[in-house]
Amino acid sequence: MNFSPAPLHIPDGFLTIVVSAIFWLITIVMVGLAVSKTNRSLGEKQIPIMGVMAAFIFAAQMLNFPIAGGTSGHFLGGTLAAIVLGPWAGILVMTAVVGIQALLFQDGGLLVMGANIFNMGILTAVIGYGLYRLVIHQKKGIRLAVAGGGAWIATMAAALFASLELWLSGTTRLEIVLPAMLGVHALIGLGEALITVAALAYIEQTRPDLLNLDNSAREGGWGWIVSGVVISLLAVLISPLASGNPDGLEKIASDLGFLGSGLDAPFQILPDYSIPFLGDTAISTILAGAVGAIVLIGLVVLLGRNLHRQKSD
Amino acid sequence: MHVDVFDQYHFTPSRVHDLDPRVKVLITVLFILSNALLPDGSWPAFALAWLLLLVANDQSGLGLGFTFKRSVVALPFTLVAVSAIFSPQGSPLAVWDLGFITLIPTDLGLIRFFSIVVRSWLSVQIAILLVATTQFPDLLHALEHLRLPRTLTTIIAFLFRYLFVLTNEVFRILRAREARSAGLPGVKGGGKLSWQIKTTGSMVGQLFLRSYERSDRIYQSMISRGYIGHIRTLNPHYMERQDWLYLFVFILFLVIIQFVGWVS
Amino acid sequence: MPVKHKSLFEIQIPECEGDILQIQDLHFSYPDGHQALRGIDLSVCEGEKVALVGPNGAGKSTLMLHLNGILGDNSPVSVAGLAVDKENLSMIRALVGLVFQNPDDQLFSPTVFDDVAFGPLHMGLPEEVVYKRVEKALADVHMKDFGDRLSHHLSMGQKKRISIATVLAMQPHILVLDEPSAGLDPRARRSLINFLKGLPITMLVSTHDLRMVEDIFPRMVIMDEGKIVADGSSRDLLQDEKLLEAHGLETPHLSNQH
Ligand SMILES: Nc1ncnc2c1ncn2[C@@H]1O[C@H](COP(=O)(O)OP(=O)(O)O)[C@@H](O)[C@H]1O
Ligand SMILES: [Mg+2]
Predict the structure, then answer these.
(1) ipTM score for this prediction
(2) Residues of A with CB below 8 A from B139's CB?
(3) Which residue's alpha carbon is at the smallest distance from atom 3 of ligand 1?
(4) Within a domain: residue C157?
């Protein structure tokens, strides 16, 4: 069995203690909330469902498919889990998956697990579910399209945050690693989006009751919608900014002063540095990123419609 | 393919296998934490940490090279840290002009890079040793004792149990897909990408539904046996003198390692 | 546990001392509208071993899920004189030991011990009692030293035995097994049959395995399309080829015809 080591599973040693601690803190708060929310709002039946769903996500991650030039698409499943089970249960399920991958298979570290859970479980739930929640009462085609777009953005956001965490730890140089990470994950995210859409379409076709759209667990959606939209926008805006102009980000980060010990201070950027294919002004790169996202969402809308029509024939 | 490749546990009678799983979890986390705390380039301390790891390997009865052999899983990710070599903080060792970017490896950059690699490599080995010497259910009990929320440990317990069942189901589905896609003349191996993705998507959907229905039956079998919302298990683990002793000695070693790392 | 090798055909069916299970005119439809049970009448006596046979989709599993209140509210089912309703539910679930067809659904814990202890623990028994119950249940199914084993390492036959142990540990008054011999190789099947034969407890067992019926169960109930179409002594019903074929059952090569 090969688990294609997804670059998202950060091992121990790659993040500093400060960065690890920050993300552990966020993760513990979110997972704690998720535990109390799921305990309260969902019946005792939810425990076996979440458990088997975690195993399902784990198993589904083995369904690789070739993308291009030897890269293989690797399903992450966070968005699908959050949409089908609700965001809190989705977070718990992904936490269990990331946890067991680290504990049992050393796929991702223990001290850095907080960051890994944040990237692959929390971001995906917030973005994937938040965006989906926005259109939950819309027609099937739109919902599927947004689910796909959400899955793509969530994957990109996970790559973005992983890069930022590595950079804040002084492990990588942002201007080298970020374009690479985002480039690879633009493809991986595409696979993620398409699989999420196809799986949702299949589920909605065969067991629409499982996606019961007025589930009580789906209440209080505004918080999710706002955070989903805001974080997606941030991710879409920051990515090109960060890869085109990391000085700005670094300044913000050092102004905020949470960079850890001097030993781990991030790198100063070479003065003559620029990345040709993104242009050199922040505006142009933001534009490029936004256009890319719109094109992608358009594609996914088309695919969603297409799938929808085929199924209803 | 049989899913026993998932089993990381290797039984040999040894003191490490007999240790309370809580002690092993704590030792593992503390060891990784200690590596993270060591300053870059503290090679004597890293060497001591490795020595400690070798002793643990030896004590586990699995052989000195046991975790070393399995630590290759950590290798691919080191690629990510390569860019650290070009840290501008040290003195330049060379100038590589690649046209669109100029790379300048520095001495501090190299030290940083190798420190990251060593930390990660040491940490992954102790994690390997942990699962090789601890049955997963014991690990779960340890996490429960260490106050992980019950909801989470229960989900992980189910995940562990059904991982094997569902991955077998995936293998069956994959075999069916191969059988269907291989025989078509004129279609190059695996079929078109859009077809691939669509079938993968519906396989995921199918797997989801089967899993969901399974969770339904599991729930029925749980309530048949009296479950009403709170999972109860027995955790027969008690810390004994030996366990405290090991924990204490190990922490002592880590303190020494830290001392060496920060003083030298 | 001594295994009786005497065929049950030679054993006199004891007089009924009181019904442990009573069902009167039970109807049930699944939420999707499918009518799975259409008027079931059945009573089972203390100590009786009853086989429930019928083609796939006859409603055997659905019926079994009614016996401890997993399906149906206030259904006309009573166990040991107790109506199967919300009030009695926890009592009923201790009385009826229901073993699901697929052991991977029945064994949901990481270790064998955890699974066998699950029932007793959730009945609220004290720890010492739980340990004793687990030990006894595992011994009863001849799997004494398997407590620490991981469920996914077991063979199908072992899983089936442990599944039965998970309910034996609750010391039920009636054992309800859904297709216990399905998916077993001949040796595992034979050893399961010997084991069930020796188990001194009221049993209702669904199966397609008519040779097992002949071996263990003096009484046989045939179900088809949600109804009971025959109920009587296995010896007689198993001779009735027409009846068996009409309900999709293959005539076994009966041992007393050799
Ligand atoms: N969860 C369900 N929802 C809808 N129909 C079901 C469900 N479970 C079973 N059925 C239907 O009820 C009928 C009886 O099924 P079942 O009790 O499983 O039969 P048996 O165990 O005799 O094979 C079948 O037609 C089956 O398709
Ligand atoms: Mg059945």
Answers:
(1) 0.90
(2) 103
(3) C30
(4) yes
